[in-house]
Amino acid sequence: MKSSILAGIFATGAVAQSGAWGQCGGNNFQGPTTCVSGYSCVYQNDWYSQCLPGAAPTPTTMKTSTTAKPSTSTAKPSTTTSSAPATSTSPAPGKGKFKWFGVNEAGAEFGEGTLPGIWGKHFTFPSTSAIQTLINDGYNTFRVGFLMERLVPNQLTSSFDDAYLKNLTETVNFITNAGSWAVIDPHNYGRYYGKIMTDTTAFGAFWTKLAKQFASNPRVVFDTNNEYNTMDQTLVLNLNQAAINAIRGAGATNYIFVEGNAWSGAWSWNVTNTNMVALTDPQNKLIYEMHQYLDSDSSGTSELCVSADIGVQRVIGATNWLRANGKMGIIGEYAGGANSQCLAAVTKLLDHLKENSDVWTGAIWWAGGPWWDKYMYSFEPPSGTGYVNYNTLLKKYVA
Ligand SMILES: *[C@@H]1O[C@H](CO)[C@@H](O)[C@H](O)[C@H]1NC(C)=O
Ligand SMILES: *[C@@H]1O[C@H](CO)[C@@H](O)[C@H](O)[C@H]1NC(C)=O
Q1: Ligand 1 atom 2, closest CA
Q2: Ligand 2 residue neighbourhood (C-beta within 6 Å)
Q3: pTM of the entire predicted model
Q4: Which of the residues are catalytic?
Q5: Where is this region: Disordered (predicted)?
């Protein structure tokens, strides 16, 4: 969720205070950093702070990362105008079908700067009625973020927090009871309480417990961790393999999404994450989850897309890597701003994935969730900016 910043929205700088649920901070954020009465600015991650109800929490020292996401493209933003997007209702081109096509559901991982935090104040769970609307639209996959520190508050090997597990399970069961897929996403960037996880045995113990919880539900997909980054490359491999071994050791035959280093970026996968080819799974149900944004540095922090072709250019190397190595992939996060160039770029990206559905199994938009307010990519029905501008287009690609 390195993507949740509203850079440039308040470029004119006239607003003095951010409103309820509004953004109030984050790297490059230009807007107001104080909140209206009754709300306080709560750090969520380095790229997003949000006005949440109530008084300010105690200050935190738990920033997960201070390094900026590396620049990923030297391309200058294109000035050419894009072709008309998304107005026709004809089916999406391309052979093949997506197995998984849906929306990330954010909320339970919010407020990572306040642990464990208070439900309804620092974090929340996705709205089942909003998910139902998306299911009615045809989406079949929901990636549900949560924080490992809330599920296992003491140490990786300790027992679950029952109340948090109950709420997570209710969300998951709502999704899978409707016949959709729930991707369980520890949104932890390879870290626990801000420290890179180096104990693969303890990480495995965490996954043994979690896999046992959901092993009987084949519509649950296990995502080992969100966006490993700025970590040792072999450690990323070993953490993924420890999770796979633990999940299979627990008797679970569910699909497993593995993620790579460098925020699991598709654009650099063929350079950075080539060692991930060595992952093994006795069930042969591994899917390589990569993320790809379309703004200048692939960070998902701008409404702008570099060009209509940028998505294809950034994933083509990953497409070739998957095929050359006999692997299957999914774009687990992507998005674009509400403008014609981004609509064209998202269209071309999805067309490319679909045309290469021998290796690409689907895509998951970043992001739905009840607390996004006016966030540029919000896919929360009925009024999220992304939902309003992209639902017509994305619906053409549903499985
Ligand atoms: C779980 O959700 C209920 C509301 O359904 C809420 O009252 C409770 O505080 C939540 N607990 C946690 C730990 O998320
Ligand atoms: C790696 O992937 C990038 C991005 O898709 C691509 O531009 C580049 O040509 C690829 N390099 C190799 C060696 O495949």
Answers
A1: 167
A2: 267, 270, 314-317, 320
A3: 0.83
A4: 227, 333
A5: 59-93
pLDDT classification of 58: cutoffs 50, 70, 90: very low
**Cα 164 to middle of ligand 2, angstroms:** 41
- Using a 6 Å CB cutoff, which residues line ligand 1? 119, 163-164, 167
Residue 271 has a CB neighbour count (10 Å cut-off) of 11
CA-based angle 398:142:230, to the nearest 5? 115
| Long-range CB pairs of 278-284, under 8 A, 24+ apart, other chains included | 278/237, 278/241, 279/237, 279/240, 279/241, 279/244, 280/241, 280/244, 281/244, 281/248, 281/256, 282/248, 283/248, 283/253
The 8-class DSSP code of residue 99 comes to S
The residue whose CA has the least distance to atom 5 of ligand 2 is: 317
Residue 342, amino acid:
C
Find the ligand nearest to 268 CA.
2
Amino acid, single-letter form, for residue 234: T
Burial 181-194 (b: 16+ CB within 10 A, else e): bbbbbbbbbbbbeb
Report phi then psi at 373, rounded to 5.
55, -125
Helices 200-214, 162-177: axis angle to 10 degrees equals 50
Instruction: List all residues 6 or more positions away from 375 whose beta carbon is below 8 Å from its beta carbon.
Output: 4, 6, 23, 384, 385
In DSSP terms, 146 is beta-bridged to: 108, 186
What's the order of all strands across the beta sheet hosting 39-45? 23-25, 48-53, 39-45
Q: Is the pLDDT of residue 112 over 90?
A: yes
Q: Is 53 helix (H, G, I), strand (E, B) or coil?
A: strand
Closest-CA residue to 268 (of 87, 73, 108, 128): 73
One-letter amino acid for residue 298 of the chain = S
Choose which residue among 115, 127, 146, 167 to substitute to test ligand 1 binding: the one with the highest number of ligand atoms within 8 A of its C-beta: 167
For ligand 1, atom 5, the nearest C-alpha belongs to 167
Which residue minimizes the CA distance to atom 13 of ligand 2? 270
Distance CA 381, CA 389 (A): 11
293: left (phi over 0), alpha (psi -120 to 50) or beta: beta
d(Cα 357, Cα 328) in Å, to the nearest integer? 9
Over range 174-198, report the average pLDDT: 98
Q: Which ligand is nearest to the CA of 110?
A: 1
185 alpha carbon – ligand 2 mean position (Å) = 28
- How far lies 217's CA from each of 62, 178, 185, 269, in Å? 34, 12, 16, 31
pLDDT score, position 175? 98
Nearest-atom number in ligand 1 for the CA of 161 is 13
